[in-house]
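Hey,

Quick one before I head out. I ran the complex with fe (ii) ion overnight. Inputs first:
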Amino acid sequence: MFFAVFKDGEGCKSYIIANEACCAAAIIDPALDLVDRYLGEVNRQGLRVRYIIDTHTHADHFSGARALRDALHAPIVMHRFSPAPHVDLHVEDGHSLPLGDMRMRILHTPGHTRDSMCIHVEDRVFTGDTLLIGGTGRTDLPSGDPEQLHDSLFHKLLSLPDDTLVYPAHDYKEREGSTIGQEKAANPRLAHAERQDFVSMMNSLNLSAPTHLTEALRTNISGGKTVRQLLAEASARVPFMAMEELLRRLDTRANDFVILDVRERDAFMQGHVPGALHLPRGQLELRLNEVLPDPSVEVLTVCELGKISTLAAATLHDLGFPRATALDGGIAAWREQGHPLERADS
Ligand SMILES: [Fe+2]
């Protein structure tokens, strides 16, 4: 068996498991930020990824499943109750997925979410957020249910042999491993074995909402993109111009070079790069022909922090301005470095 553990900076854990005899592999609970690392490891080990598995609908991090599918052409696997439209293979309790002669057995373990499942492979179990080391997943987020979690733990997961290794989707305290037996003995939440006791303990946890809750649900459930993805895609499509280069351009001022400030009116009035034209990003498409009649010019987009201008430059490329470029940094940095600003009088 080949086995690799990955951690992101926020306590999320993900795994590659493979049958070395036939090189078939599965990636479990991939994070979007680590996609290049999984691909690097898969290539280094010479593995063929057969399954990309999310143990449940994650509410606190962005799944890398779709990005991996694009790169690896393997199906995205989730439980039948997953609401995500991009799932290719829905599994249910008791199903098995083969990696050569190895079998990954699916245990449906609702509670943290309705679609939560654990994956039992030989000597180990991937517990998602059903069972954590020294804890359990929370049950107060969408589709969570403490009664279901109790049953999933006490009537299903904890019935696995005591020496089964436990690999959860989260660990915030850098612990390397545990077993079902160790959790039964020391996990404080599992001390509440009686159903009603467990439910009231879970209901009284009063946890704060995860940082990226809405964006995670929006992207993981509906298949939308994160804001970072949108920016990264736009950045990959446009060239950038350094501030020093813009300063040089201000001296020589070619007549096929246009600076386009895409901030709102008030911000533009308070100070902009000398000679800049103004077209707020919200009006970009509709007023473009009027403000920029010549599509052959080089257009440099400028905004406060350098993000909206990147999106605007990508839109200009789409609209037929092949020389659109974005200022590397925004007016905030320009101002901070003491470069010239012009104020609008009206
Ligand atoms: Fe979770």
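The mean pLDDT is 95.

Talk tomorrow,
K.
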